Amino acid sequence: MGITKTNEISVPLENSDYDRTIELKAFDDTKDGVKGLADTGITKIPRMFHHDKDDEFENFSSDKITINVPSIDLRDIINNKDSNLIARRRVVVEEIREASETWGFFQLVNHGVPESVMEEMKGGVRRFYEQENEVKRELYSRDRSRPVVYNSNFDLFTSKAANWRDTFYCIMAPNPPKLECLPTICRETLVEYSKHVMELGSVLFELLSEALGLNPGHLEDMGCKEGLTVICHYYPACPEPELTLGATKHTDNDFLTVLLQDQIGGLQVLHQNKWVDVSYIPGSLVINIGDLLQLITNDKFKSVEHRVVANNVGPRISIASFFSTSLRPSSKLYGPLKELVSEDNPPKYRETTVHDYVSYSIGRGLDGTSHLLHLRI
Predict the structure, then answer these.
(1) Cis previous bond, 147, omega within 30
(2) CA distances from residue 125 to 32, 260, 294 in whole angstroms, order as listed
(3) If I label 195, which of 51, 177, 220, 303 is the partner at 20 to 30 A Cα–Cα?
(4) What is the DSSP letter of 286?
(5) What pLDDT is attached to residue 210?
(6) Coil, strand or helix: which one is 204?
(7) Is residue 367 pLDDT above 80, yes or no?
(8) What pLDDT, on the 0 to 100 scale, is given for residue 12?
(9) Phi-psi region of 225 (alpha: psi -120 to 50; beta: other; left: phi over 0)
(10) Where would I find the beta strands (DSSP E) of 164-273?
């Protein structure tokens, strides 16, 4: 069988029998990820990254959609100095309610996380991926119990097609790893950035609680802010971006996501059956509703499909902070809040633990469907 070599990966030629399993294993065994492939200077991407030309690529080359994801200014809320703070807070709460119900996404400006910390976080992630391969390989694993996990495509062996990105992640709350377990090259910035995101989380869950007509501390008191997983993505420039994706369409399996992205672009959200670019705003953070928040609000707030298109420029850096206790053992059940259900609006979902829902979601991978469907009543 004829093969061609790409970064020590045996890639079957077009006129030969194709064994996807062999190609996946060869890729994974290098422990160099997508960046390792890109660094070889390839001009054709391996077949394992080819996505079917289905609805994933709908509007991929269409005219730019001019509507924008809502942008919300938290300056007065964070500074707490406005002479008419109560009225201003009502405005912000209403903006968050509308965005959470209609978009599931919004951008935050003047959110209180120092721009210097955000820039250093992006720089730290870039330094991690651009250090010597031998150093990174020590962290490469598919063992989710490790304090820090680096690999390419968490669902590599179950997805229909691989995505053009590498990832490392660590759980920073409620039980952060020992400092020496974090990557040396970015450990301090990981700790600093996570601290600021947790502080912002308190503000956001208060505002979201009020947007639901609840006491400001309701969502945090029930554990929505207890856990934080920081997920750091690296999307190398892709020589054939029209054939693949940076991330398949999906929803997030958490309560809330705080996303820090750079200027490269590529994030898109599905709004009114159209893919809309989430444009980069300097100094901003992107917020999106997760599945678990949609579940407990009984569909009032929407966890919306989003994706990342591949680019022929890069690398693109993004850091997604998931408010969730993830795979941590748990017995606490979450279901539609009793304050939000009634005879006219009965519960739409069965109860679940965070652990069980995240386990189910990881098992399914980024399969393009809402994982909430299996809990639907």
Answers:
(1) no
(2) 16, 11, 30
(3) 303
(4) E
(5) 98
(6) helix
(7) yes
(8) 43
(9) alpha
(10) 166-173, 228-235, 245-250, 256-261, 267-271
- Name the CATH superfamily housing domain 52-375: B-lactam Antibiotic, Isopenicillin N Synthase; Chain (2.60.120.330)
Residues in the chain: 377
SS3 for 185? helix
For residue range 20-56, list pLDDT tens digits in order.
999 999 999 999 999 999 999 999 999 999 998 765 5
Contact 30, 10 (CB under 8 A): no
Who contacts 125 (Cβ-Cβ below 8 Å, separation ≥6)? 186, 232, 233, 234, 317, 319
Q: What is the mean pLDDT of residues 340-354?
A: 97
pLDDT at 16: 61
Structure tokens that stand for 4 in this block:
């061609």
Over residues 97-122, the pLDDT tens digits come to 999 999 999 999 999 999 999 999 99
Backbone torsion region of residue 365, taken as left when φ is above 0, otherwise alpha when ψ lies between -120 and 50, otherwise beta: left
Query: Which letter does DSSP use for residue 349 in this model?
Result: B
Domain ranges of the chain: 52-375
**Model-wide pTM > 0.90:** yes
Find, among 296, 347, 300, the residue nearest to 97 by Cα: 300
